[in-house]
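Narrative summary of target 7.
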Amino acid sequence: MSTAMKRARAPEQKAQRRAAILKAAETCFHQVEPNLPSVSDVAAQAGVSKGTVYLYFRTKEEIFLALFSHHLNSIFGQIQTIELSEQASNALSSSLLEYLSAHPIFMPLAAMLHSVIESNLSLEVSLAFKLQLSQGLTHTAAVVDAKLQCPRGFSERALLHSYAALTGLWQLLQWPSALEHEQDNPQYGALHKDFATELQIILEKIWRPES
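Modeled conformation, tokenized:
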């Protein structure tokens, strides 16, 4: 058995193996998007057996939920560290767009979260994800509230609305490859919008202090 195929035993080895599987999953996703790669595809890309992948994830949906969670936590962390002022929408939109540009997998995963990824998860995994999401949102909102000196709860609602606007806007402005030849047709002018520009407009409204 090769070194790459040996079972990871120490905690740090397990963490490294899990990270390698997620990295392989991200590579595979870009190759077969908009579908989720199979566990076999991920295992082959990671250089491990399917059995090894199943030691860490019970389904392919669990793999991509973990990948989505990783990026969402990174976004929360990035929001917590940026400098915020009264023009919070500018800083937030710049930070979000910078992250999305560097990690193009996030939006496709976000679009698939409820309809595809969460469709084949155990109750235990689903509830653990919801708890993680709630706690991450609450903690990030508390940090932002303190920076902006706004009423408690304002940033939690604003972050929730920002995520809804981000995913909804992205999905509306996407054109499937089969329709790309019609993308510039003036009949569809309402959908010929720049994502970054429209996101900024929405965030300005969401993050406007309540009167």
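The chain is about 65% helix and 0% strand.
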